[in-house]
Amino acid sequence: MFTAYSIEDFVGQKLKHKDFLIHRLENLDYLPPQSIKTPHKHLFYEIYLLKEGSAIHNVDFNTFHIKNNNLFIINEEQVHHLEKNVSQELKGYRILFTKDFINNSLIPSNLLFEIVYLHNIRYQPLISIAEHSELYTYAHLLLSEYNQQTLSLENIKALLFLFLNEVKRNIISDTNDDFIYTNNQIRSYKLFLDLVETNYYKDLSLEDYAKRVNISTRQLSRMIKLISNTTLNTIILNRRLLQSKRLLKHSDLSISEIAYEVGFLEPSYFCKVFKKK
């Protein structure tokens, strides 16, 4: 339904490293038009660090207006489309990296999860930063290192760790969220979200998810409430409705077919729930 692009698809040529890329937003026009003009998915994470200019980013039916000194995070698998303001040149950086790149480094996987998953759930993927934020310094150093004739992955990963850690610091400052979760909670919640992503259309109960996460139903309920301030049923319903919106807009399936596809047993009930949302 949606084309899922690798990082190399965005440049149309072989990269220095298939799992990492950084470049200036001033060079965005040189990317393949199909990659930026049609809604698509990524097989990687994408971070926009905008110093000057403005743009509109549509992510899964949510519209975000990006402006000066904004940082914008796009999770892998999100359907999105960037619309540039043709009257203004974008200045800043775009950083792309895969989950494998993080896993094969000293960067704690929980750090990326806190930034990308937890922040997007509790707040929004758009962050306001200071005009002279350290993020610009780290991005500049990352670009300089990436442009070296001999690429040092160790240096890139070390700088990326500093960059992501500074992103987390900015999130805390911007939202007053202290991210006080235990490693076990973060690990369990990530596993839970992965399970929802692959099973949202199935009729699984709280007990089913708790068993797969290897915690009690009470622990799972409390963890979901603590981190996302909602319930299991709401998370599953929202995921089903998101997929139904994608199918309605980008497929030729009928309403009944979409209802069954996303896990509703009765199309009439699906229509009732969809209208309420």
From TrEMBL:
The keyword Disulfide bond does not apply. Pfam families: AraC_binding, HTH_18. Gene3D superfamilies: Homeodomain-like, Jelly Rolls. Keywords: DNA-binding, Transcription, Transcription regulation. One of its GO terms (molecular function) is DNA-binding transcription factor activity. Residues 190-277 form the HTH araC/xylS-type domain. InterPro entries: AraC-bd, Homeodomain-like_sf, HTH-like, HTH_AraC, RmlC-like_jellyroll. It comes from the Bacteria. PROSITE patterns: HTH_ARAC_FAMILY_2 (PS01124). This is Transcriptional regulator, arac family. It comes from Riemerella anatipestifer (strain ATCC 11845 / DSM 15868 / JCM 9532 / NCTC 11014). The lineage of its organism: Bacteria, Pseudomonadati, Bacteroidota, Flavobacteriia, Flavobacteriales.
